[in-house]
């Protein structure tokens, strides 16, 4: 029997298939009865799944990041497709084809890594370039980077997504360099590389939708600053020179402030030209990617709008490309 990919489903289709459970929420209706709100994902997109009148204990062993076999029916609700579930249970990953569930970067990961290396080695400041070289020659780290996602739910949430996000930002910075002479371009390139690097330890490399214990307790900003501190010490041992204190502070500040505001998780507000440039480059690449991927992955091809997305408080207009 052919696999039932989410993007191929239509209103009224019966479904009995395995998907990745990207998110799981238990909510109560007006009568205080629990229902499951699930986000089901495969390589073609995402669809919401609803299961009414559930018992919390019966779903205790079903968690985000699991592969689940579901039974149900696709329903058109307020112009958007959703799946009404009657059954859900976990299945072991080793019996599945990972390619059925993994979204891919827009470019080959090996090509992205080569481009990353070339961009970082274009840094002119000798000690800053030596710092980047210490990261680049760390084979274990670079292998982890090639597998890491940039997010759990929103932007670049797939294997190789992190290096794609970093290279996109580096390329954008390169194109606007001449417009902002007040920005130290070498520091900006290094900061772009470092800003999300802690995500290689924040999220599981085996499952891009699960945080590690270290990730839960520290987060990628603190982890990233720790990784930078370790590599600065390595550079100093290898070169037998002290790394410039101010450059180290600027880089750490960029990691700590790149979320832009306290309510979005920044430890500090951006206080340097490089830090504010990093924040906006990061936000630009993340948001445009999130919008474009949401539109592309929407299974309801007959609608010119996506469903309402609570995380961004809006629907997205797809226009005539939806038809």
Notable traits:
323 residues, alpha+beta, OB fold (Dihydrolipoamide Acetyltransferase, E2P), 2 domains, 5-stranded mixed beta barrel, 10 helices, elongated
Order of helices and strands: EEEEEHHHHHHHHHH
Give the helix tally: 10
How many angstroms separate the termini? 28 Å
* Strand residue content: 15-25%
Could you list the spans in which at least 5 consecutive residues all have pLDDT below 50?
A: none
User: What does the largest sheet look like?
Assistant: 5 strands, mixed, barrel
Using the CA coordinates, give the radius of gyration. 22 Å
Strand order of the largest sheet: 1-2-3-5-4
Shape: elongated
Overall mean confidence score, pLDDT: 90
Please bin the fraction of helical residues. Answer: 25-40%
Give the strand tally. Answer: 5
Task: Describe what you observe in this structure.
- The chain is an alpha+beta fold.
- The protein has 2 domains: 93 residues, Nucleic acid-binding proteins (OB fold (Dihydrolipoamide Acetyltransferase, E2P)); 191 residues.
- Helices cover 39% and strands 17% of the residues.
- Strands 1-2-3-5-4 form a 5-stranded mixed beta barrel.
- It is elongated, with a radius of gyration of 22 Å.
- It starts with 13 loop residues before the first strand and ends in a 26-residue tail after the last helix.
Q: What can be said about this structure in brief?
A:
This protein is α+β, with helices and mostly antiparallel strands and 323 residues long. The chain contains ten helices and five strands. The longest helix is centred in the C-terminal third of the chain and has 25 residues, at 273-297.
